[in-house]
Amino acid sequence: MRGSDGPPRLLVLRALGLGDLLAGVPALRALRRAHPHHELVLAAPAELAPAASATEVVDRLLPASAPGRAVPRTLGWDGPPPDIAVDLHGNGPPSHLLLHALRPRRLLAFAHPGTPEIEGPEWRAEEHERDRWCRLLIHYGIPADPADLLLPRPSVPSPAPGAVVLHPGAAAPARRWPVDRFGAVATALRAHGHRVVVTGGAGEDDLVASLAERAELPESDLYTGGLPFGPLSALVAEARAVISGDTGIAHLAVAHATPSVTLFGPVPPSRWGPPRSPRHRALWHPAPDGDPHGRQPDPALLRITAQEVLAAAEALPPPRPRRDGARRRRGRNGGR
User: Fold this and answer.
1) How high is the pLDDT of residue 328?
2) 320 inside domain
3) CA 36, CA 331: separation in Å to the nearest integer?
């Protein structure tokens, strides 16, 4: 970290996954606008550094992670206390106490009985993730717009421009739609003249291979092992559409305004879904909340049929061209 002669420092804790980072982009941009001369440091998993850089508002990533969605035990902060610390990780108290231990001059967080010294707004469990963090900042007098979530066009070329991207994986089995249904969708889309490519994260090679076998996809259209963020972002940005469960790539499609179909089960789209737009279709059969980290596909997710997914995909509008002038640039002077 920089010494005391450097710029003031703003530390943001969001040590979660790619989808969580992208859902937090509106809040990060609001913090950059409100504090254009601060060094904005994001505490997040090290592998998210390229995605954090793509937001164009994060100056430095401080590696921080824990198994599941837990709060890291410590932060490797070795400089003077942050001037401002912002808890975008949870509603405390573990995340509150982690930041409080760094003795920031100001701590922005939701209120919790376990940390009565923090006079923040109340936590609303049913609130949409993008709205939640913007409301937190608005409470502290920082204007924030949940719709400010687009990423700039990637600088690298897409490995499969114009393809329909299928992503059958997710961090937990509860959010994985059956691979045979993905296979049926892929087969039908190819019969309709679409190129179909399949992506998979680390440890999902068998899942991708199973889908490819069912749909008779060539090996050249399989992206296994977890594409680096740059090529993955370019693939999504130039795709005809993205079809996936409620996972990071669905948020990446929203960030690039790429048409998408997202399948929801244990958690409703009212909390994690895309903005209301003809470009994004959220499929969900209303049901009581399930466990998004469960070891079996959620019953509500299983109610979604391949025919529903195909109908939603075919109803999507074509991708919308984005001009280079639409790139968002926010440096420390707050300019675009």
Assistant:
1) 43
2) no
3) 7
Q: Is residue 32 part of a domain?
A: yes
One domain for residues 266 and 183: yes
Q: Decide if 198 is inside a domain.
A: yes
C-alpha distance from residue 274 to each of 207, 252, 293 (Å): 25, 10, 20
202 and 293 fall within a common domain: yes
Q: Find the helix packing angle between 25-34 and 129-139, rounded to 10°.
A: 20
Give the pLDDT confidence score for residue 273 in this predicted structure.
Answer: 97
Residue 322: the pLDDT is 58
Does position 336 have pLDDT exceeding 60, yes or no? no
Residues 101 and 213 in one domain: no
Does the pTM of the predicted model rise above 0.85? yes
| 241 φ/ψ angles, rounded to the nearest 5 degrees | -170, 160
Domain containing 288 equals 164-314
The verdict on residue 79 lying in a domain is yes
Rounded distance between C-alpha atoms, residue 284 and residue 301, angstroms:
7
Identity (one letter) of the amino acid at 279? R
Q: Specify the number of domains making up the chain.
A: 2
User: Which ranges of 41-163 would DSSP assign to H, the alpha helix?
Assistant: 49-54, 94-100, 129-139
194 and 126 within one domain: no
- Whether the pLDDT of residue 106 is over 60: the answer is yes
Task: Tell me the per-residue pLDDT of 218-256, one tens digit each, with 9 for 90 and over.
Answer: 999 999 888 999 999 999 999 999 999 999 999 999 999
CA distance 91 to 94: 8
Shared domain for 125 and 206, answered yes or no, is no
Distance CA 90, CA 16 (A): 10
**Given a cut of 80, is residue 3 above it in pLDDT?**
no
For residues 264 and 285, what is the distance between their CA atoms, to the nearest angstrom?
8
- Which helix or strand (DSSP H or E) is residue 270 part of? helix 269-272
